[in-house]
From TrEMBL:
MF GO annotations: kinase activity
InterPro entries: Cytidylate_kin (IPR003136), Cytidylate_kinase_dom (IPR011994), P-loop_NTPase (IPR027417)
Protein name per Swiss-Prot or TrEMBL: Cytidylate kinase
Gene: cmk
Alphabetical keyword list: ATP-binding, Cytoplasm, Kinase, Nucleotide-binding, Transferase
Reactions the enzyme catalyzes: CMP + ATP = CDP + ADP; dCMP + ATP = dCDP + ADP
Annotated localization: Cytoplasm
Annotated CDD domains: CMPK
Residues reported to bind ATP: 7-15
EC number of this enzyme: 2.7.4.25
């Protein structure tokens, strides 16, 4: 079984994806980390994010087995990831790994921006997670504080709005709900509430197959 989760920044995709995967015994891939890791290569080597060829090269050479690092989940990397993720060759280079991950048994959960539309259009369940920009900024603010990054709320809100706009309007694999996705507005839900609502959707689908 394959579960695709898409949605804007800090909507809770990763948290939900991990909870669902743990509960179901499935593999989980936070695909945003792939783009963040590519951006990190450029930033660490002092290469401008506007260098499309270097970005594509970094994506092709990415060591997908070691996707972590203290800076990867920081605010600066999210913004940088959004810039290089608009380059088609970068997306192309990361596609095969994501699709292969989607065939993991007994199941897989992938979260990102284009999972239900491009990476796994045949996913069994497609969820599109939303929340108001203000609520998402509030969540990200708390999350960054926990990580020791004290970024102003207003700056996070501005970053989220800019990133959503860029992700939704780019020519390649823009952020949007697949026609067969179920939208879950989590503005008034905590992480437990979002998990229970999503699990009910997944269980309903499982009982039919
Ligand atoms: O992956 P994405 O950027 O969409 O969001 P996340 O990193 O999973 O979640 C951002 C923060 O919001 C985390 O600290 C979560 O604990 C929190 N949160 C959530 O995930 N879901 C809710 N319904 C409410 C809060
Ligand atoms: O956690 P958050 O939602 O803030 O960001 P993320 O999921 O880690 O993604 C960072 C950036 O990578 C996004 O703003 C997108 O531009 C890009 N991305 C993408 O283009 N396609 C994906 N499947 C996942 C992320």
């Amino acid at each position: 079984m394959l579960i695709a989760i898409d949605g804007p920044a800090a909507s809770g995709k990763g948290t939900l994806g991990k909870r669902l995967a743990d509960h179901l015994g499935f593999a989980h891939l936070d695909t945003g980390l792939l783009y963040r890791a590519v951006a990190a290569v450029l930033l660490n080597e002092g290469i401008p994010l506007s260098d499309r060829e270097a970005a594509a090269q970094a994506a092709e050479n990415l060591d997908v087995a070691h996707l972590d690092g203290p800076d990867l989940r920081g605010a600066a990397m999210g913004e940088a990831a959004s810039v290089i993720s608009a380059y088609q060759p970068v997306r192309d280079a990361l596609l095969a790994f994501q699709r292969q991950f989607g065939s993991e048994l007994p199941g897989a959960v992938l979260d990102g921006r284009d999972i239900g539309t491009v990476v796994c259009p045949n996913a069994d369940v497609k969820l599109f997670i939303t929340a108001t920009p203000e609520e998402r900024a509030r969540r990200r603010h708390l999350e960054l504080l926990r990580r020791g990054e004290d970024v102003a709320y207003t700056s996070i809100l501005a970053d989220i709005r800019r990133r959503d706009e860029r992700d939704m309007t780019r020519a390649t694999a823009p952020l949007k709900a697949a026609p067969d996705a179920i939208t879950l507005d989590t503005t008034a839900l905590d992480a437990d509430g979002a998990f229970l609502a999503a699990l009910a959707i997944v269980e309903k689908k499982r009982s039919k197959t």
